[in-house]
From TrEMBL, chain A:
One of its GO terms (biological process) is transmembrane transport. The keyword Transport applies. Its main location: membrane. It is found in: Cell membrane. It is a multi-pass membrane protein. Keywords: Cell membrane, Membrane, Transmembrane, Transmembrane helix, Transport. The chain crosses the membrane at residues 12-32, 77-100, 112-132, 144-165, 186-211, 263-282. One of its GO terms (cellular component) is plasma membrane. This is Sugar ABC transporter permease. It comes from Paenibacillus montaniterrae. Belongs to the binding-protein-dependent transport system permease family. PANTHER family: ABC TRANSPORTER PERMEASE PROTEIN MG189-RELATED-RELATED, POLYGALACTURONAN_RHAMNOGALACTURONAN TRANSPORT SYSTEM PERMEASE PROTEIN YTCP. The lineage of its organism: Bacteria, Bacillati, Bacillota, Bacilli, Bacillales. CDD domains: TM_PBP2 (cd06261).
TrEMBL record, chain B:
Keywords: Cell membrane, Membrane, Transmembrane, Transmembrane helix, Transport. Belongs to the binding-protein-dependent transport system permease family. This is Sugar ABC transporter permease. It is a multi-pass membrane protein. It comes from Paenibacillus montaniterrae. Its main location: membrane. GO terms for cellular component: plasma membrane. The keyword Zinc does not apply. The chain crosses the membrane at residues 29-56, 94-118, 130-150, 181-203, 224-249, 285-310. It is found in: Cell membrane. Coiled coil: none annotated. GO terms for biological process: transmembrane transport. Residues 90-306 form the ABC transmembrane type-1 domain.
Length: 297, 320
C-alpha cells in the first residue's frame, strides 16, 4: 500500500514537470520563432518557412527597416513613448488622489465616490455615444489626447490603490493633522512615500496598458503622424491579411508592396523589444498586484 | 491648517447642523483631490449616457442627437430580424466566451496545482516567467504570432501538416477554424496570469491540513482532489461568476488584433463589440447605439445576478 501510493505520487510529480514544461515552452516558442525569423534571410524563409533557428542569419531586415521606414518607426516610437509617460504620470496622480480620498474613513461621501466609480464598471452607454461625445464635444479626433485621456482612470487600479492606502494606520495622519497639515500634504508626504511599491505596481500596469494600446488609435486616429507603435504594426499586418484572404484582387495586389515575412517579424520584435528587455525587472510587481487584488476578493 | 480654523469657526456658529455644505467645506481638500478623477468619469462614462437617446431615433448629423426623428424600437427590431447579423454575432460572442471561461479556468487551475507539486525553485521560477509573458504583449502582437503559425505558405501549422503527409490548409480563407484559434489564443495569453490568482489563493491554505492528510497516508492525487481543489472552489466560483457576468461582452482587441476586418472570417468570429464598431460605419449611429445599449443592459442584469450569487456563496462578500 505504502509503496503503491508513493509510486503514484512520483507519477504525479513527473506529470507536473512535463505538463508545466510543455505549456511553458508553448508560451515561449512563438517569441523565439519571431526573433529567429527577424534575423533570417528573406529567401530562406520563402523557401523553408519559419524555423526556430535563424536561417542564413543576417541583420539585413533590420537594416532595411531603418533605411526605408526608420523615420516613421521612430516617430511611432515617439508617439508611444509620449502616450506612455504622460498617460502613466497623469493616471497615477489622478488615480491615487481619488483612492486616497476614498480610503479616508472620516470622509462622509466616500461611498458616493466609490459608487460612481464602481457603477462605470457594471453599466456603460456603449461605444457609439462615447465616441460621439469624444469626437463632437471634446474634439479628440486625430489628437494625441484621444489615446491618453480615456484610459487615464482605471477603476480596478483605483480600488487596488485604495486597498493599499486603507492599510496605512490613520494614526499616522492624525499626528500630521494636529500639526496643521492639510490632506493633500498628508497624501503627498505621508501616504505616497509609504506606498512606493503599490505605486510602482499600479504605475507599471498603466504603462503596460498605454504601451500596448492601439484600439484608441484605431477608433480616433487616421493621421499617420500620430500612429503609435502598436497601430503601426497593426496596419502592416492587416495589409498582409487582406492580401492573403484573397480580398484584394490579384491585379491590385501587384501594386501594393507586401511587407516581407522577415519585416513583419522584425517590426513585431521592435514593438515588444522594450517589454522583453524590462520583463525580468518588472514581472514581480505585476505578480504582487495580482496577488493583492486576489486577496481583496 | 485652513480647514481646521474654518471648521471650528463654523462649528461655533452652527453647533448642531452638519449638512452637505459643511462636510464639503470641512473636507474640501479631499473632495478637490477627487475632482480630476470625477471629471474623467463624467466625461467618458456619464455624459455619454445622453447619447443613448440616439438608439430610439434615426440619427442624422443635421438634426443632432435630440433633433433627429423618433422611431421608437425600430432599431432594436432590426437587430432581431433575419436581415441583420444580430443573432449570429450574439451566438459567436456566447460560444467564444463559453469555451474561454471553461478552458480559461481548467488550464490555470491545472497550472497552479501542478506548479505546487514542483520542488525545484529554479524550474518553477523559470517556467512561471515563461507562462506569464504572453500577458504582457498586445493583441496585435498576438495577431502577428498567429499569422506566423497559420500563414499558408510559411506558417508552422502547415509545415507540421505537410510533415505528417497532410495537405496544407489555407487557414485565412477557412472561417470554421477561427473560433477555436481565437479561444486557444486567449487561453494561451491569459493562463499564466490567471494561475497567479489561484496560486495566491493557495498560499493562504492551512498547511496543517496537508500534514495530517500525509499522516493518514493520503496520496498526492487524493490531496489534490480532496483538499486543494475543494479549497480553491470559492475562488473558482467568484472568478467564473465575474466572467459569466461579462459573457455578452466580446474582446474587441482580441478579435481585431487577430483577424482584423477580414470579411471572409468575420461571419464566424464577429462578436457584438466588433459588430457595433462595424455597423457604426455601415448601418449608422442609431442602430449601432441600440445594439450597444442592449449589450449594456444584458450585462447589467447578468452582473447584478452574478453579484447576488457571489454574495450568497461568499458570506455576503460580493464581487465588488
Amino acid at each position: 500500500m505504502k509503496l503503491k501510493s508513493s509510486l503514484g505520487d512520483r507519477w504525479v510529480v513527473v506529470f507536473a514537470y512535463c505538463f508545466i514544461a510543455i505549456f511553458a515552452l508553448i508560451c515561449l516558442y512563438p517569441f523565439l520563432l519571431t526573433i529567429s525569423v527577424s534575423f533570417s534571410s528573406e529567401s530562406a524563409i520563402a523557401r523553408n518557412g519559419y524555423a526556430l533557428l535563424p536561417q542564413l542569419p543576417t541583420l539585413d531586415t533590420y537594416r532595411y527597416i531603418f533605411v526605408n521606414s526608420g523615420a516613421s518607426i521612430l516617430r511611432s516610437y515617439g508617439v508611444t513613448f509620449f502616450i506612455t509617460t504622460v498617460g502613466t504620470a497623469g493616471a497615477l496622480l489622478i488615480t491615487s488622489m481619488l483612492a486616497f480620498a476614498i480610503s479616508i474613513k472620516k470622509l462622509r461621501y466616500r461611498n458616493v465616490l466609490a459608487f460612481i466609480s464602481n457603477f462605470t464598471i457594471i453599466f456603460s452607454a456603449g461605444l457609439i455615444p462615447w465616441y460621439m461625445v469624444s469626437v463632437n464635444y471634446y474634439g479628440l479626433k486625430n489628437t494625441i489626447w484621444a489615446m491618453i485621456l480615456p484610459a487615464m482612470l482605471n477603476v480596478w487600479n483605483m480600488f487596488l490603490m485604495r486597498t493599499y492606502f486603507s492599510a496605512i494606520s490613520p494614526s499616522l495622519y492624525e499626528a500630521a493633522e494636529i500639526d496643521g497639515a492639510n490632506y493633500f500634504k498628508i497624501f503627498w508626504s505621508i501616504a505616497m512615500p509609504l506606498s512606493k511599491t503599490p505605486l510602482l505596481t499600479v504605475g507599471l500596469m498603466y504603462a503596460l496598458a498605454y504601451w500596448n494600446d492601439w484600439w484608441h488609435a484605431l477608433i480616433f486616429v487616421n493621421k499617420k503622424d500620430l500612429f503609435p507603435l502598436q497601430y503601426y504594426l497593426y496596419n502592416i499586418l492587416s495589409n498582409v491579411n487582406a492580401i492573403s484572404s484573397g480580398r484584394i484582387p490579384s491585379g491590385a495586389s501587384g501594386s501594393i508592396t507586401l511587407p516581407a515575412e522577415t519585416v513583419k517579424m522584425a517590426v513585431t520584435i521592435i514593438t515588444i523589444g522594450p517589454i522583453m528587455f524590462l520583463y525580468p525587472f518588472i514581472q514581480r510587481y505585476f505578480v504582487q498586484g495580482i496577488m493583492a487584488g486576489a486577496v481583496k476578493e | 491648517m485652513n480647514s481646521g480654523i474654518d471648521g471650528t469657526r463654523i462649528q461655533e456658529l452652527k453647533p448642531i447642523k452638519k449638512g452637505f455644505l459643511y462636510e464639503i467645506k470641512r473636507h474640501r481638500v479631499l473632495y478637490l483631490m477627487s475632482v480630476p478623477a470625477v471629471i474623467l468619469l463624467l466625461m467618458f462614462s456619464y455624459i455619454p449616457f445622453a447619447g443613448v437617446w440616439m438608439a430610439f431615433t434615426e440619427f442624422n448629423v443635421v438634426d443632432g442627437i435630440f433633433g433627429s426623428p423618433f422611431v421608437g424600437l425600430t432599431n432594436f427590431e432590426y437587430f432581431f430580424s433575419e436581415h441583420s447579423m444580430g443573432w449570429q454575432v450574439t451566438y459567436n460572442t456566447l460560444v467564444i466566451n463559453f469555451y474561454t471561461i471553461i478552458l480559461g479556468t481548467v488550464v490555470p487551475v491545472a497550472i497552479a496545482v501542478l506548479l505546487n507539486e514542483i520542488r525545484s525553485m529554479t524550474f518553477k521560477k523559470l517556467t512561471q516567467s515563461m507562462m506569464f509573458f504572453p500577458y504582457f504583449i498586445s493583441w496585435v502582437v498576438v495577431g502577428a504570432i498567429v499569422y506566423g503559425v497559420f500563414s499558408t505558405d510559411v506558417g508552422v501549422a502547415n509545415k507540421v501538416l505537410q510533415f505528417f503527409g497532410f495537405e496544407p490548409i489555407r487557414w485565412y480563407s477557412e472561417p470554421q477554424y477561427w473560433k477555436p484559434i481565437i479561444i486557444l489564443a486567449s487561453v494561451w495569453k491569459f493562463s499564466g496570469y490567471s494561475s497567479i490568482v489561484y496560486m495566491a489563493a493557495m498560499s493562504n491554505f492551512d498547511q496543517s491540513l496537508y500534514e495530517s492528510a500525509k499522516v493518514d497516508g493520503a496520496s498526492k492525487l487524493q490531496q489534490i482532489f480532496y483538499l486543494t481543489i475543494p479549497m480553491l472552489k470559492p475562488t473558482i466560483v467568484v472568478l467564473t461568476l465575474l466572467s459569466v457576468g461579462r459573457i455578452f461582452y466580446g474582446d474587441f482587441g482580441m478579435i481585431y488584433g487577430i483577424v482584423g476586418d477580414n470579411p471572409v472570417l468575420s461571419g464566424e468570429v464577429s462578436v457584438i463589440d466588433t459588430y457595433v464598431y462595424q455597423s457604426m460605419r455601415t448601418l449608422g449611429f442609431s442602430y449601432s447605439t441600440a445594439v450597444g445599449l442592449m449589450q449594456s443592459v444584458m450585462g447589467l442584469i447578468l452582473v447584478t445576478a452574478a453579484n447576488y450569487f457571489a454574495k450568497k456563496i461568499n458570506d455576503g462578500e460580493g464581487l465588488f
